[in-house]
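Lab notebook page, bench 4
Experiment: in silico fold of construct C2
Operator: M.H.
Input chain length: 291 residues
Purpose: comparison with the prior construct
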Amino acid sequence: MQLCGWKMIGAVSTPVRYWIRVLFPAAISLFPACAANPPQDVNHLCPQCRSIIISPAAQLPLIAYVKVNPSQSESAFIHVYLEGDGQPWIRGRWPAKNPSSRQLTALKLMMLDPHPAIYLNRPCYGYKFMPEHCSDELWTNARYGPEIVDAMAFALADFATQYPGKRWVLIGHSGGGVLAMLLAEKVENVAAVVTLAANLDHQAWTNIKGFAPLNRSLNPVDQEPLPANVMRWHFAGGRDLQVPPQITSDAAASDSGSQFFFEPEFDHSCCWEQIWPRILRELDAQLTGTK
């Protein structure tokens, strides 16, 4: 078995596997794109995905899952899917030991997408064993902080060298939509941002929900407007109790270059998969100038 340039011979015992995962984050940084063992649920939903560990610094490695087939080489766009916040807190009181999403809404949407696509986890998400330098601050107060955004921007810059000339379509569900907007400011060749049920003004969101403010996080509504050539679509559900649609609509209204779409019967997770193929077709038509 080959592990990111290190050859492992024979069976590896459970204790040895544990220490490999604990002690290797620094070694992983020597290999910016190397195979990872995906969690079983991701592997089940996307058996054709190639898992990659990217480590801009040993402290903040992240995992991506790549669904790009050779037959898609002519496509001008790569769709990048960003998952929500998962479970940052336990019962709203204690920081979770592992915040990774259980629902994987963004991944399920990616599996309906015929385009070349990348499922990009934020740092510290998607691991069975948490990397050493992942503190719970990174998925609570600083969940949209500069450290997170910079690490993900580094990952996309690394992918840009592997797929030269491609343009990015950033697609985020819930908190992933917040990160999509923040990444669009830092990443070159972004064609569009699409958000679903996203708390695009997290200060207004924490105020309405009575949550502690995310003081170490960047807020999309406080940033400079994106360039006019970056299309942005924001969707919200009328039955969404986690991110009230008014949060999304108000944020979209503050950005003259964005469009807001309201689905009155949808909630936070349901039923985006039902309309996703249609949204993708309309997105294609807008980006390619076809009908």
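Observations: Residues 2-288 form a domain with the Rossmann fold fold (CATH 3.40.50.1820). Residues 1-38 have pLDDT under 50 and may be disordered.
Next step: discuss at group meeting.
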